[in-house]
Write a structure and sequence with these properties.
Elements (H helix, E strand, L loop, with lengths): L7 E6 L5 H11 L10 H14 L3 E3 L2 E7 L7 E11 L9 E9 L4 H15 L2 H13 L4 H12 L3
Parallel strand pairs: 1-4, 3-5
Antiparallel strand pairs: 2-3, 4-5
Helix pairs in contact: 1-2
């Protein structure tokens, strides 16, 4: 069973240790955001504006940044993995190791919420979070990446 709630997902390794630089790393290095073409900078500004309002660092080493533009026709997710951690001003004060960035439209709110729920369900398990971060840092481009994307898409954790 395929996931119909979001249509694109890609992963990148993060070297930035500051919140906005890390967000920019995800937007610049996750190929899924290349599909935004001329809207990529507008999307970046939307994510930054949202982050200024309140941190999207939800705790336990996870942040879920997001931006919405009417011109975006599908929900896409980029994941940045940081071995060292990002100073993100998270609610629990801990560094972020898994930074999700979601692009969507205000008109695709239901799919956005379904995608957000799947991510939250997936990262709720501490062992899973630690294992994903550990494996991605060791085998970033290998089978682990593909397996994780497949599991996320099918919600078979």
């Amino acid at each position: 069973m395929e996931n119909k709630d979001f249509e694109g997902f890609s992963v990148c390794h993060l070297v930035a240790t500051e919140k906005f630089a890390a967000i920019d790393n995800v937007i610049d290095n996750c190929k899924i955001f290349d599909e935004l073409n001329d809207n990529k900078e507008r999307f970046r500004r939307a994510v930054h504006r949202r982050e200024i309002i309140e941190t999207t660092g939800i705790g336990h080493g996870v942040a879920i940044a997001h931006g919405k533009l009417p011109c975006i026709d599908k929900v896409c997710v980029g994941l940045g993995v940081s071995e060292d951690g990002i100073d993100y001003n998270s609610k629990d004060g801990q560094p972020v190791h898994l930074l999700f960035v979601i692009s969507s439209s205000p008109f695709t709110q239901i799919n956005y919420l379904k995608t957000l729920a799947k991510i939250l369900k997936s990262v709720h398990d501490e062992e899973l979070r630690n294992e994903v971060a550990r494996l991605f840092c060791k085998d970033f481009h290998g089978e682990v990446c593909e397996d994780f994307l497949h599991m996320l898409g099918n919600q078979k954790f």
